[in-house]
Amino acid sequence: MALREAARMRESNEDPYFLATSLLNQNFRIRQLEGVAKLAAQVLEGDSSEEILEQLQQALQAISADKGKKTKKAA
Fold this sequence. Notes:
mainly alpha; 81% helix; 75 residues; 3 helices
């Protein structure tokens, strides 16, 4: 419910303090990190197939790329 309202606020420009945008961004980051945690757990459980390791590497690169974009924007 909160995410739907945040999306509505952002789309209708009713987010003067960027709280809705922040909520949506944090939700996106949490989902990315949950994906990394799931893949890392598979590796720790002994499933170190090339496919899993490649997916983990791609997930980590995606997070690093997103972090770099945020840093560049802030600078």
